[in-house]
Amino acid sequence: MPLTSRTSELVARTIAAHGGSQLWESAAEVGVEVSSGGLAFASKLQGRAVRGVDARVSTHGQHVTLSPYPGPGERGVLREDGSVRIETDGGELISVRESAREACAHLRHKLWWDRLDILYFATQALWTYISTPFVFERDGYEVRELEPWSEHGELFRRLAVRFPAYVHTHSREQVFYIDESGLIRRHDYTADPISKLAKAAHYCMDHQSFDGLTIATRRRVYPRKADNTPRARPLLVWIEMPTARILPADAQVRV
Predict the structure, then answer these.
(1) Which residues partner with 169 through β-bridges?
(2) What is the DSSP letter of 44?
(3) pLDDT tens, position by position, 156-185
């Protein structure tokens, strides 16, 4: 369905506030320093799995690399087909899971995760956080505007986005809360790889610009209640991304 002029304007303003389409399309990858943790990871026995890693996020396909991961001399890779693998820095395969998302439905994954499970969850999440809002104008994304939302004295416009089925992300339906300047300040979804009941309110804070790209350097995720308000606790996930960099096409090194 074509966007209304009002919704199209909001999408364009949001993309511009985060650095603009030209910057995104001219890049090959975005490099981000990442640390993360919280109850959601700890409950899967992976509370410290993602600390001080360098993520390389493709701008033109769903390819993400974490290094060092899970240890020195190793890296974790999400491929566009949804498979995840751990390799040596030289490219020698250590372990692989071809259908990582489907595996999350198995009984063992309900109880605890291994390093391939948390690799899948972390990389598909990072790809989502870094690539939105730039992908909203691409084919296959369905975008509509919801009623505004008031929270803590601020009024946010909201974009409901339905992601294409081939994209590995938290859930098909997600909602983004946009402030007056065009920045994404809150992001709602259901973390399906964890549970169909894992409804989250994800707060995006301390936006900073790196090489022209604006990202939220601090993120906090809380349970979302039926009335769309967050619970004050527990803190499900915390994410710190203190630095980022644009890797242009002529500087790309694909691993």
Answers:
(1) none
(2) T
(3) 999 999 999 999 999 999 999 999 999 999
